[in-house]
Design a protein that fits this description.
Elements (H helix, E strand, L loop, with lengths): L2 H8 L51 E5 L5 H15 L3 E5 L5 H9 L7 E4 L2 H7 L10 H4 L7 E4 L2 E6 L3 E8 H8 L15 H13 L1 H4 L3 E3 L10 H7 L1 H11 L12 H13 L13 H9 L3 E7 L3 H6 L7 E4 L11 E6 L3 E4 L5 H16 L1 H10 L17 H11 L3 E3 L9 H16 L4 H20 L1
Parallel strand pairs: 1-2, 7-8, 10-12
Antiparallel strand pairs: 3-11, 4-5, 5-11, 6-8, 6-9, 6-10
Helix pairs in contact: 1-16, 2-15, 9-17, 14-15, 17-18
Length: 465
């Protein structure tokens, strides 16, 4: 994503005092990464590419298969409001965490299939593109600020990103500032934590002095159940992929080399060693455990993203207590690294739906991104930063979004979401299993390397040949 464009999108969060703003923020814990390729679908979609008639908008219905469990109630309320205003029936079903692809595969085969669903990016589109209506002539596509947020197949627009998100290492500013005052502190300011070496030195120091600081460990538990493992097999794995792509000047590959897997090992070792719990317990730790550990002040650092804000706020953390650092792994030039920013949330319209339902769905999407009710729901209630024109007047009040914007404004280079090029869900699961075995002491790091490198080539070939 271009730095200039990203700055324009994220800077919306900085103008709340000048524009018609929204109230408290949201966006909770989102397993953002686990949306990749399902098993090969045997159903052949119809080749319906006819443009729906605008006059049909009042006679169709909408079925949205929502990816984000944390926003389920907000989407249901928004759907009900639209139905109240227009009379058009809108139903929302939300897939359970980590099950979106299997749920979509099941639902898409039904007579009453979703008319609106989502894919995670190019890999997801490769699986579902034959189901995707061409949005190039739609009103909602015309609302996008840039084509950088459109997912294309040739000249056809198959998907539209509806939210831009950011992740990194969230920290408890109160505890960290207390640490800076201690004689044993290895740095005296968060600005000095700008490399893996400095992050490790601080984390080691916190771990050694945990009792004095009143914490259980530097990092929250790196839980490896399905509610948490996406943070490491996908989001953390993004970093070595990103740096390899940068070094090789590419944006995807059929065979990852694993150039930065030693760096991946170093950050993973730090997470599981300077932690609130022993590595042998990680198989039983959940995403909720990590959230609670951080919110209760038991840990200083917590890898997660802007979507975690509502969970932390609901657990009693105030805005001033929250900060966010880049995920440093010792990559080249990381002192100028920013946060990981991108999107894997692309709306797609089911082209096999009836003409009336397609039009109803397009109308609903356009209403979401242009109406006061829709814009307010996405920014104020869901905490999203959205890449549509109208959202300049609806900045999210999520403080983690403001931090992301600060990094961009300071000239730091945002880390692209290269995990959308991971070849399959199976690849991620195998990497995650190897990470857990290594953490528990029942496997070697070489198994992680094998799953990462050999598994990539195998899964890519399976998906493309």
């Amino acid at each position: 994503m271009k730095k200039k464009l990203l700055s324009a999108i994220l800077s919306a969060a900085m103008v709340a005092t000048m524009l018609t703003g929204c109230g408290s923020s949201n966006d909770t814990q989102t397993p953002s990464a686990d949306t990749q390729t399902p098993a090969a679908d045997t159903q052949t979609p119809a080749a319906d590419t006819q443009t729906p008639n605008a006059s049909a908008s009042g006679s169709g219905k909408v079925y949205y298969l929502n990816f984000k469990p944390e926003a389920a109630q907000q989407w249901e309320a928004l759907a009900a409001k639209y139905t109240e205003e227009t009379g058009v029936p809108v139903s929302v079903q939300t897939a359970a965490s980590g099950t979106y692809e299997s749920t979509l595969k099941s639902e898409i085969a039904k007579t009453e299939a979703p008319t609106l669903f989502q894919v995670n990016g190019p890999v997801g589109l490769a699986t579902w593109k034959d189901y995707c209506y061409d949005l190039s002539g739609s009103d909602v596509y015309g609302q996008l600020k840039s084509d950088d947020f459109a997912l294309k197949d040739g000249n056809e627009v198959k998907g539209i990103a509806y939210v831009v998100e950011t992740y990194g290492i969230i920290y408890n500013a109160y505890i960290l500032n207390d640490y800076f005052t201690k004689d044993y502190a290895v740095v005296k300011s968060v600005d000095e934590i700008n490399s893996f070496d400095n992050l490790k030195a601080v984390a080691d120091s916190i771990q050694a002095n945990a009792s004095d600081l009143g914490v259980k460990g530097a990092f929250t538990s790196a839980g490896m159940d399905s509610s948490s493992d996406w943070r490491f097999k996908t989001h953390l794995a993004n970093l070595p992929i990103y740096y390899e792509y940068q070094a090789d000047g590419i944006g995807s590959t059929d065979a990852i080399k694993g150039t930065y897997l030693d760096n991946y090992k170093n950050i993973w070792d730090l997470y599981i060693t300077d932690s609130v719990c022993a590595p042998t317990l990680l198989s039983s730790k959940t995403g909720e455990d990590a959230t609670a550990e951080f919110a209760l002040g038991e840990a200083v650092f917590y890898q997660n993203g802007t979507w975690a804000y509502t969970d932390l706020s609901d657990n009693g953390m105030d805005d001033d207590s929250l900060g966010m650092l880049p995920i440093y792994i010792g990559g080249p030039g990381e002192e100028n690294q920013g946060l990981c920013t991108g999107s894997e949330n692309y709306w797609c319209v089911n082209k096999n739906a009836s003409e009336e339902d397609i039009q109803a769905t397009l109308d609903f999407m356009n209403w979401i991104v242009t109406s006061d009710a829709g814009c307010t729901a996405l920014t104020e209630e869901m905490g999203f930063v959205c890449p549509f024109e109208a959202f300049d007047n609806y900045p999210a009040s999520n403080p983690l979004v403001n931090i992301a914007n600060d990094y961009v404004s300071a000239g730091n280079t945002s880390v692209a979401w290269t995990f959308t090029t991971m070849p399959s869900e199976t690849w991620k699961d195998n990497v995650g299993s190897a990470l857990l075995e290594y953490a528990q002491g029942t496997g070697e790091w070489s198994a992680v390397e094998t799953a990462f490198v050999d598994g990539w080539a195998e899964e890519y070939n399976a998906a493309n040949n």
